[in-house]
Design brief:
Number of strands: 5
Largest sheet: 3 strands, parallel
Order of helices and strands: HEHEHEHEHEH
Radius of gyration: 14 Å
Shape: globular
Number of helices: 6
Structural class: alpha/beta
Strand order of the largest sheet: 3-4-5
Length: 124
């Protein structure tokens, strides 16, 4: 929720996908009373991939959707904390920044700094 607030303050529109009822509830809790945050409708994977291709930046944890964004070389901030970044970080995507690692949950500040690198046009 804090990350969504900070992204909205930077002028970003936050779109939250979900796949299960629990994820839908979590997305709704993040979005409640927050202008600029949209809970997306339920989508099939192909629809979501098409939607992701239309955004300026993807921010996500180490899941299939994050790796889908990486495979399409979309600008990406990949978050790691339960899996080792050295093993699963999308290094093949030149437009990806990975933050966090096993045992180190990235702070909202760390994620925002990575996002800022994209917004400023210098992700390298």
């Amino acid at each position: 929720r804090e990350l969504a607030q900070r992204l909205c303050a930077k002028g970003c529109v936050v779109q939250l996908p979900w796949g299960s009822p629990a994820e839908h509830e979590q997305a709704q809790r993040i979005a409640v009373h927050m202008a600029g945050v949209e809970v997306l409708p339920h989508m099939q994977l192909g629809e979501l991939a098409e939607r992701m291709g239309q955004v300026d930046l993807v921010v996500g944890v180490d899941t299939g959707l994050t790796h889908l964004a990486a495979a399409h070389c979309l600008p990406l901030v990949a978050l790691f904390f339960a899996t080792p970044a050295w093993c699963y970080a999308p290094r093949f995507n030149p437009a990806a920044i990975s933050v966090g690692d096993v045992g180190h949950v990235p702070s909202v500040n760390e994620v925002c700094e990575a996002v800022d690198r994209f917004l400023q046009g210098s992700q390298v």
